[in-house]
Specification:
The chain is an alpha/beta fold and 349 residues long. It has two domains: 4-127 and 300-320, Rossmann fold (3-Layer(aba) Sandwich), CATH 3.40.50; 133-298 and 329-345, Dihydrodipicolinate Reductase, domain 2. The protein has helices at 20-29, 45-55, 63-69, 84-93, 108-118, 133-142, 165-171, 176-180, 182-192, 295-298, 301-314, 323-339, and strands at 11-16, 35-41, 58-60, 74-77, 97-101, 123-126, 150-157, 195-202, 208-214, 219-224, 236-241, 244-249, 253-257, 279-283, 343-345. The chain has a nine-stranded mixed β-sheet with strand order 14-13-12-11-7-10-9-8-15, with helices on one face. A hairpin with a 3-residue loop joins strand 12 and strand 13. It comes from Devosia ginsengisoli.
Length: 349
Amino acid sequence: MQYQIEAQKPVRIGVVGVGSHCYRNILPTLTYLPVQLVAVADVDLERATAVGRQYNAKAYASAAEMYAAEELDAVLLCVSAKLHPQLTIQAFEAGLHVWMEKPAAMRASEVEAMLAARGDRFCVVSYKKAFMPATRKAIELLALEGNAPIRSLLGVYPLSLPEDGPAVLAEGRKSAWLSNGCHPLALMMELGGAVEAVTTHRSKHDGGACILHYASGAIGNLHLSKGVPNTQPCERYLIAAGSRSIEIENSRRVIYQRGIDFSYTHGTSFAQGNCDTGAIVWEAQDGLNSPETMSAVTQGIHGALDHFIAAVAEGTRPTICDLDFTLALTRVWEAVLLSQGKTVAVTSG
C-alpha cells in the first residue's frame, strides 16, 4: 500500500458522481492510494462544489466539462448502472482509463458496446468481493499442490430473486439481484472460473438457489438465504478442492482445512498429528486499528481501486474484473433471471 502523500508521480484522477456511497466509501479510500484527485463532477453542482472544496479539487456539473478542462489519466465512475455505458464510452473517447462501481450495466449487450469502444484503454469494474483479501488468499491456497481440482463451491448470501425474472430483464427494471447479486457471483467466478450453464430454483417464500455449472466440471451452489438478518454475520463460502477445503466467513476470516491424522476406532484426540495437519485460520484483527482491518479493505474496495491505479501507473492491463470478465459475469447474471427452474446455457457471443 502507498499513501497519497508518498506518491512521487501520482495518477491524476477525476470522479463522476459524488453521492452518498462515493462520499462514504470511495473518496476516503483515496488516502491509501498514489493518486491526485484533480476534479469531481456531479449533476448536483452544489454538492460537487462542496466535495471539491473539501478535497481541494475543481467541481463541474458534467463529466464532459471536466474532461474538456482537465488533464486526467483516469476517471472513477460512481453513478447508476444505467449511466455506466454512456459515461464509460465517453471517457474512452476522451482517452481516459475507467474504474466504475458495480454493476457495470443493465444488460450484456451494453458491456459489449463498452468493449468495442475500449481500444487501448483500461477498465476495472469494482466487483469488490473478487478483490477481498480473503478471496485473494483463497486463490493463493488453490494454487498449492494437492488443492486441485475444484470439486464444488458453496456460497451463502442474504438475497432473493424476482418472481418475474424474464420480465425484469426485458423491461430493464432495477432489482436487488442487479445491485447485489453480482457480489457473490463475482467471487464464485473468480474462484471457479467460467460458467457454462445456470439452473435457478426460487422458493415460494423468497430465497432459493442458483446452481452454477462450471466449464471445469465443478458445480457451484449460490444459496440465496433471504430472511437471514443482513445486519448479522450472514455471508459464507466453501470451496472443496482436492482433498482439502477453504472457507470464507463474512469476508474477514479464511479457514484452510487440511484434515487430521484420524483413526475411526482408536483415535482419542481431535488435535492429533503435527503442524502439517489440521486447520489454519487467518482473521482480521479489529483491535489493531490499522488499515488492514478497515471495511474498505476487508470488503475489497481498496483492492479494486489499487489494482486499477497500479495498472494505469505501470501501463499494464488489469487482470481482475476487467470488461471481459464483466461480460461473462453479466451473461451469467442474465441466465439466472431467465432460468426459473430450467437449465439455461450461458452464451459466449
